[in-house]
Amino acid sequence: MTSARKVALAVRSDLATWQKLNVAAFLSSGLGTAQPEVIGDVYLDADGRVYPPMLAMPVRVFTGDDAALRRSFDRALGRGLLVSVYTDEMFTTMNDVDNRAAVAKVATSRLSIAGFVAVGDAKQVDKAFDKLKPHE
After folding, report:
1. CA 27 to CA 20: how far, in whole Å?
2. pLDDT in tens, 11-43
3. SS3 of 61, please?
4. Is 97's pLDDT higher than 90?
5. Secondary structure E strands in 1-136
6. How many Å apart are CA 85 and CA 99, to the nearest integer?
7. Residue 38's domain is classified under what CATH number?
8. What angle do CA 73, 74, 78 make, to 5 degrees?
9. Domain count, the chain
10. Domain encompassing residue 72
């Protein structure tokens, strides 16, 4: 029997709404490339139109201040979860190359985290996100 898996995403509470949505979209987009098993099958409507597959499990979305996100981020890394990060510097870039360069020039402990997503064993995800509040 395999353990239950979970996806959780956190965005910093002081971000503008457009920033929160942008962070969530970017972070969710990469999970399937790193772990294809989290992606479901294609969607098909009644007319036979095919739509691309999406994540096969719900994404729990949380929020917290800078300190709360840092704590959860560090706990997710420490638990060996697959983590993607979106930093404040990425709001100023206009392409993927510059996004990667912005992250690459800062040590993990000094990243200014706007948001992050984690996937893995449900119990470990719960422990990493335990102090964050569900986003409303």
Report:
1. 11
2. 999 999 999 999 999 999 888 888 888 899 999
3. strand
4. yes
5. 5-12, 43-44, 50-51, 59-64, 82-87, 113-121, 133-134
6. 11
7. 3.40.1490.10
8. 120
9. 1
10. 5-134
